[in-house]
Write a structure and sequence with these properties.
The chain is α/β, with parallel strands linked by helices. The protein folds into 7 domains: 118 residues, Arc Repressor Mutant, subunit A (Orthogonal Bundle), CATH 1.10.10; 148 residues, P-loop containing nucleotide triphosphate hydrolases (Rossmann fold), CATH 3.40.50.300; 97 residues, no CATH class; 79 residues, Arc Repressor Mutant, subunit A, CATH 1.10.10.10; 96 residues, no CATH class; 209 residues, Serine Threonine Protein Phosphatase 5, Tetratricopeptide repeat; 116 residues, Serine Threonine Protein Phosphatase 5, Tetratricopeptide repeat, CATH 1.25.40. The chain contains 45 helices and 16 strands. A 6-stranded parallel beta sheet has the order 8-10-11-12-9-13, with helices on both faces. The chain has a 4-stranded antiparallel beta sheet with strand order 3-2-1-7, with no helix packed on it. A 3-stranded antiparallel beta sheet has the order 4-6-5. Strand 15 and strand 16 form a beta hairpin. Helix 25 runs antiparallel to helix 26 and helix 41 runs parallel beside helix 43. The longest helix has 21 residues. The chain is globular and about 110 Å long. The N terminus is likely disordered.
Length: 949
């Protein structure tokens, strides 16, 4: 039997729809081109990484040669070995393959790759075939009596793009929506995402919350644009839950999304229609209840879904419960009186288990009159659910009532520890309070969320509002809102100190605190709040908002806190300097290196010096250096280098010395002194690394190995060491998953990896790296790195475009991006036609910098193209370029200049001179012979040495 595999790309090969391959913790479905973890989570892979996975898993344990993989993944095209390495690295990262005993993919030197995991062929069951794609959807709960409804809504969504499920509070809209999403999830290749609007109070928060859910950075100007740009090419289902109190904002968002993203479908839940264009409304009916007066035989009552739910929930509270025939009419009446509302039935069930059906019916009759007598136009939730909640509250013991109302200050899902701390008066009460919280769960006044490592509790919003009214009526609101704010200030301080959790683990554990932090800040800034606590909480929570990609919201809190600190007496400098440091980063990561960043950071530095906070001052200086170097302001950047060096000399602090080498490496690279840059970079990489940064530090202070490698790789390439430069890039990529510092990795990809790949002429590698940039930027709060990735995306498209289209596309690129001087100069190093006029002006009037030689060469090439007969001016620029490159030790630029000058000399008949110029430079290279520049130069030199015919 032939063991070879089809060299046609796997995306075009046929496979049985139910065929699946299981290995490790994954299930691969070739026909659907889908890879899921065994828990149903979809694993995102690029097309080429997926083709590699298909090829390797088709022959587990066997070596698949590199050339064979080239034929499968890049049929009919010549590509570099490094292309394959980049995509294999991406595949390993997606599989969590970090080598060692459990590795899945082995590199067999000189031969290819082998898949080492055990691969088991299986046929996907119906449940497996419907494994939910990646997304953010809570698991569906067991539904009773809703099968036809779920099927009907699912069919509606297949035909229509916006379906809104409406109905009274407590009727089960969310549960139905989750069941629908689970049923049709496989129809959406880009996943199903669930956004609960119940914890949002203002229209303006809707789009940022959606961006946070999608792990998108948010720009200050127009956050909706970023969301729409992300959604435009995708096929996914977005569930908007609890829209009723933000119906206008939800409607506008729905219309914008539907107009922009043709492959996106929306499922909304609301007590009223959104009234958006194209909306299809499904009014969710209550559960089926027996007719009143009862005309159905008792033995047939269990056919009604409301009765089924009541029996199931009562039995869950009391396993000995049996619905006897004599009680069936009472059960029918109770379900009918509760209007078939699932939540109301679930609230009544614990009382039935304790009091019996007859007693509950008697009390229910009394309590309904509390909110309905005399007010026929009372809101639906008050005529039904409100009365049910009030009645349920009155059945609590006094201690339970106290805990119930105090827990209302908690807006999101909370831990048992948080509930006990906030509802009790002393630590010794915590045991009793834990029991009371358990009782409130049993009585359906708290719901439970079982997470991976902990159990959390939540009050449904209708119940929480009722409990909050009780708290205010008891005169306890101010005291417990303060306690709530104090508690979450402590949690915020703890967020930044964590060192052992990965970013994803941190998010799983803490992202549910957003609603509570927002409520704590709202109270602290209010007239009844506390200015000191407000400023402390804003500063302490900065890492949290960064992690959730809600940086514009963070910026609002920080600016508000700084204004408050100016007017409120006694706010400590140590707090205010942290506000300024965080605000500088917030502005930088959303707007880029705008002048306001330096103003804010300089004020933070002044406060740090006044407070004697040398470590804080050092890190603010690092941030200032990053701002100035990104802008291309070398004078200001070197000033920061000198100030950091002064701290290092004065304190002998190892971290200060390390930081001085880091910034010196970059500053000297940008100034064109590549030898000194390499010296500082090597010294920084050789110094002992400080301890693992905390989650807070990883946002404000990039990992030193990762950031230094970006400078090091650039300086190596410019110095003519192209292979060493790419080795540094590959090393940093391999370590990215280990260090788990997405901010630092985004910086490295944009500043180091992508330019090196483009300078080497490896567009396929550059494309893969740009994909990594955009992946990283979508998972962190970094608009600046997202813009960097998009810029490179446009540049690569320009390089691949027909020459006739390039000028117009370049005009669009410049119009779409506000380029810093550094970015404009960098464009000119990629290809001469990308050269910007302002870059030429700087190169011809200012002292030479890192790419002056290449800018002058590119301008010389432009002159030759536009006026080929007048070569004197062009030759002068090319010779000046060569002189600068040689003085700077920039062998990479010197080779390009030599090649350009050699072509000019040959065109003028000066072949011997051309051979001497190019041969001298080529002879000094010791590596990089497979890169584009060296291949072209070698070909040109060979042509120059051939006898003329």
């Amino acid at each position: 039997m032939d063991s070879t595999i089809d060299t046609e790309p796997a995306r075009r090969r046929g496979a049985r729809a139910d065929e699946a391959l299981r290995f490790g913790g994954f299930r691969l479905r070739p026909a659907a081109r889908a890879l899921h973890r065994l828990d149903g989570t979809k694993v995102r892979l690029g097309d080429r990484a997926f083709d590699i996975l298909l090829a390797l898993t088709a022959r587990p344990g066997q070596v698949v040669g590199s050339q064979e993989l080239f034929g499968i993944v890049w049929p009919g095209r010549f590509v570099e070995e490094s292309n394959l390495r980049v995509h294999v690295a991406a595949l390993r990262r997606a599989l969590g393959d970090q080598g060692g005993a459990g590795r899945l993919i082995a590199n067999i030197p000189g031969r290819g790759y082998a898949f080492l995991g055990e691969v088991v062929a299986e046929h996907a069951s119906a449940g497996e075939a419907a494994a939910p794609p990646r997304g953010s959807v809570p698991p569906p709960t067991r539904l009773i009596g809703r099968d036809e409804t779920v099927h009907a809504i699912a069919e509606d969504l297949r035909r229509r793009r916006l379906v809104t499920v409406t109905g009274a509070g407590g009727i089960g809209k969310t549960a139905v929506a989750l069941a629908v999403a689970a049923r049709i999830a496989d129809a959406y290749p880009d996943g199903v995402h669930f956004l609960d609007l119940g914890g949002i109070d203002r229209d303006a928060e809707v789009v940022p919350q959606l961006a946070s859910l999608l792990r998108l950075p948010i720009s200050d100007g127009d956050p909706l644009r970023g969301v729409l740009d992300h959604l435009r090419p995708r096929r996914l289902l977005l569930v908007l839950d609890n829209c009723e109190h933000l119906v206008g904002a939800a409607s506008r968002l729905a219309e914008e999304i539907l107009a922009t993203a043709p492959g996106l479908h929306l499922l909304a839940t609301s007590r009223e229609p959104l009234r958006a264009a194209g909306e299809w409304v499904h009014r969710l009916a209550p559960l089926d209840v027996p007719p009143q007066p009862l005309t159905t035989r008792a033995e047939e009552l269990l056919r009604f879904s409301a009765v089924q739910l009541l029996v199931e929930r009562v039995t869950a509270c009391d396993a000995a419960f049996v619905l006897i025939e004599a009680d069936m009419p009472l059960a029918a009446e109770l379900c009918a009186r509760l209007d078939g509302l699932p939540l109301a039935i679930e609230l009544a069930a614990p009382r039935v288990a304790v009091l019996g059906l007859a007693a509950v019916l008697a009390r229910l009759d009394e309590r309904f009159r509390l909110l309905t007598n005399g007010r026929r136009n009372a809101a639906e939730r008050h005529r039904t659910l409100g009365a049910m909640i009030e009645w349920s509250h009155d059945t609590l013991t006094p201690a339970e009532q106290v805990a119930y109302r105090r827990l209302s200050v908690l807006r999101g899902a909370f831990t048992l520890e948080a509930g006990c701390r906030l509802a009790g008066e002393a630590a010794e009460e915590e045991g009793a309070l834990a029991a009371i919280i358990g009782d409130l769960v049993e009585k359906s006044l708290l719901s439970v969320e079982n997470r991976e490592r902990e159990r959390r509790y939540r009050m449904l919003e209708s119940i929480r509002l009722h409990a909050a009214a009780k708290l205010a009526a008891a005169g306890e609101e101010a005291r417990f809102r303060r306690r709530h704010a104090d508690y979450f200030h402590g949690r915020a301080l703890a967020y930044g100190r964590v060192t052992t959790l990965s970013t994803e683990e941190w998010l799983v554990r803490h992202r549910g605190d957003a609603a509570d932090l927002r409520a704590a800040l709202d109270w602290a800034f209010s007239a009844e709040g506390d200015a000191h606590l407000a400023t402390q909480l804003a500063a302490a929570s900065a890492p949290f908002w960064f992690k959730l990609m809600l940086v514009p919201e963070l910026r609002g809190w920080l600016e508000r806190a700084i204004r408050l600190a100016r007017s409120a007496p006694g706010i400590e400098d140590a707090v205010v300097l942290r506000l300024h440091a965080a605000l500088g980063h917030a502005i930088f990561h959303t707007q880029g290196p705008v002048p306001e960043v330096a103003e804010v950071l300089e004020e933070g530095l002044r406060l740090a010096r006044r407070a004697g906070e040398e470590q804080a001052a050092l890190r603010i200086l690092w941030a200032l250096f990053g701002h100035h170097s990104t802008r291309g302001d070398l004078a200001a950047a070197f000033d920061c280098v000198a100030r950091i060096g002064a701290v290092a000399d004065a304190t002998s602090d190892p971290e200060a010395r390390l930081l001085h080498d880091r910034v010196s490496a970059l500053a000297h690279h940008l100034a064109g002194d590549q030898a000194r840059s390499l010296m500082h970079a090597r010294r920084a990489l050789a110094r002992p690394a400080p301890g693992r940064p905390t989650q807070g530090e990883s946002i404000f202070f990039y990992d030193h190995q990762t950031s230094t490698r970006s400078h090091y790789a650039r300086a190596l390439w410019v110095s003519g060491l192209a292979d060493q430069a790419m080795a540094v890039v590959e090393e940093a990529i391999a370590e990215a998953a280990v260090i788990d510092q997405p901010f630092a990795f985004g910086y490295f990809l944009v500043f180091g990896a992508c330019p090196v790949a483009l300078w080497r002429g490896e567009l396929e590698v550059a494309q893969a790296l740009v994909g990594r940039v955009l992946d990283v930027a979508s998972g962190i709060t970094s608009g600046i790195w997202q813009r960097g990735g998009r810029l490179y995306e446009h540049v690569i498209a320009l390089l691949q475009a027909p020459e006739a289209e390039r000028a117009l596309r370049l005009q669009r690129l410049v119009a779409d991006f506000t380029l810093t001087p550094f970015q404009a100069d960098s464009l000119g190093t990629v290809a001469p036609f990308l050269l910007q006029r302002e870059s030429v002006a700087r190169a011809t009037t200012e002292p030479p910098q890192w790419c002056t030689a290449e800018i002058l060469r590119a301008e010389g090439e432009r002159l030759l193209r536009d006026a080929p007969r007048d070569g004197a001016a062009a030759e002068a620029l090319l010779r000046r370029s060569l002189g600068i490159a040689r003085a700077q030790g920039a062998l990479g630029w010197e080779l390009r200049g030599a090649a350009s000058l050699a072509r000019l000399c040959r065109a003028q008949g000066r072949v011997a001179e051309a051979e001497d110029v190019l041969g001298d430079v080529l002879s000094r290279f010791r590596e990089g012979f497979a890169t584009r520049d060296l291949r072209r130069a070698a070909t040109l030199l060979q042509a120059l040495r051939q006898p003329a015919h």
